[in-house]
Amino acid sequence: MTTLARHATDGWVVAKRNLIKIVRVPEILVFVLISPIMFVLLFAYVFGGAIDPGGGVNYREFLIAGIFAQTVVFGATFTGAGLAEDMQKGIIDRFRSLPMSSSAVLVGRTTSDVVYNVLSLIIMALTGLLVGWRMREGIGKALLAFLLLLVFAYAVSWIMAWVGLMVPSVDVINNASFIVIMPLTFVSNAFVPTETFPAVLQRVVEWNPVSTLTQACRELFGNTNPDVPVPDAWSLQNPVLYTLICVVVILLAFVPLSIRQYRIASSR
Fold first, then answer.
1. How many beta carbons lie within 10 A of that of residue 151, not counting itself?
2. 62-76, 82-96, 181-195, 197-211: least confidently modelled range
3. How many CB atoms lie within 10 A of CB 12?
4. Confidence of residue 1 (pLDDT cuts 50, 70, 90)
5. 164 conformational bin, left if phi > 0, alpha if psi -120 to 50, beta if neither
6. Of 69, 87, 74, whose CA–CA distance to 113 is shortest?
7. I need a surface site. Which of 51, 77, 124, 259 has the fewest CB within 10 A?
8. 194-209 in b/e burial notation, b at 16+ Cβ within 10 A?
9. Could you tell me the end-to-end alpha-carbon distance of the chain, in angstroms, rounded to an integer?
């Protein structure tokens, strides 16, 4: 068996172990799915009447892509929390005694969390359809938008994996990820148009990858007005390309960092 095939096989074994938790602890799945439903309903019905995205676009259609982006980014924190928990309980030490590749735990964890995000996206899409959201560019482009969301979430999960291996407990990773991810998602165009931010923050919003992920999904879903000009920033004029560049940069940086940190943490 080649080295790559071994990594993939070992990673899938660990991924299945993580997914079994859905059956054994169904409460995890319940909370994973309830959260995005609450966000969709709260923003659609509580804030929907007070926020005008402009350009004749319905706020509920403007909103859904942002909710998708926020949820998959938050979903990536399960990777860090899961690894921190495994470290705390000594499960990583058990993995060390098994004849598996050193990257299998990380590959398995990040892969299994993609499944959580797939389930979240399905539930959110159904909820969005109920509140008036529509995929106006056809199912093909909609599937590309969902794929882009999952790819971006997968990349962010490697950042969370690195953080999860560096902190001493699940509580710390939850607090640390909240501090980082909340500004990342709210200082973006996920919930309000870019032009509503102060001038200084607008530059941050325009180059925030969450903004470009959201913009890319809006365009692929057909939830934008083609008559309204896109901001001058290259990132928002080419949101799919810029988001993919960010994904590649994140993976190139944090996959080796996470594997290195795993080896350090498991050798303690």
1. 18
2. 82-96
3. 15
4. very low
5. alpha
6. 74
7. 51
8. beebeeeebeebbebb
9. 30
164: closest CA among 76, 71, 268, 251?
A: 76
Spatial separation of the C-alpha atoms in residues 6 and 178, rounded to whole Å: 35
Amino acid at 162: W
pLDDT tens string 164-191: 888 767 777 777 777 778 888 889 998 8
**Burial of 38 by CB count in 10 Å (0-12 exposed, 13-18 middle, 19+ buried)?**
exposed
Amino acid type, 85: E
pLDDT digits (tens, 9 = 90+) for 203-222: 999 999 999 999 999 999 99
